[in-house]
Amino acid sequence: MIKSVIFDFNGTLFDDGKYHKVAWGIVSKELRGYPLTIEEMNHKLNGYTNENILKYVTDDSLSKEELIYQSSRKEAIYRDIVKEIEGGAKLIDGATDFFNFLINKNIPFTISSASIKENIDFFIKTFKLDSFFDVSTIVYDDGRFNNKGQMYKESLKVMNFIPEETLIFEDSITGIKGAYEAGVKDVIAIYNENLLNRYKEFPLKKIVTNYNNLSDLF
After folding, report:
1. From CA 102, how far away is CA 34, in angstroms rounded?
2. For residue 146, what pLDDT is reported?
3. SS3 breakdown of the chain: % helix, strand, coil, rounded to 5?
4. How far lies 166's CA from each of 64, 92, 103, 134, 155, in Å?
């Protein structure tokens, strides 16, 4: 029985892959002469921390200070892009209604994201996440984690969630693997056409395009 929920954020609650791709393209072109490919983004980098991505892009040639600088710079570019979205940035369809459903059912939930703190703060303000989440429980890339598995384990610990009773929403292969590594067996993937064949590798509970009509999970 599902008694708790953890959401990834980027690509899972906010469909922002194209904005990250543009931002990484700018940084990658400056650092190695050409942007990241769709193949790299979908199959090698989604779900990884900025530090790991930058190490990949530069063959691990940057100092710690340079890694921090380039990470912050990439995310600043990304945030500027999001701010310019016509009509304003919006969560995936049905997300806020689903949050309210969980609240009414007394089912606790949180976010575990590979984003850095500046982005988390930006998301909280942009999407008014503090209306639904205890934002102090959000796990993010603060330099302590090497992968999403470690982040999910931290979220389980912070929230006192039991892995066997927790549902995780994810969109990346790395994140899905991390959920299983953390001991969570119930994983729902957010639809990504480029990853459908990879999704078949996992015993996913569902693949969904939005957060409507999910009450039957509980």
Report:
1. 44
2. 87
3. 50, 10, 35
4. 35, 21, 15, 17, 11
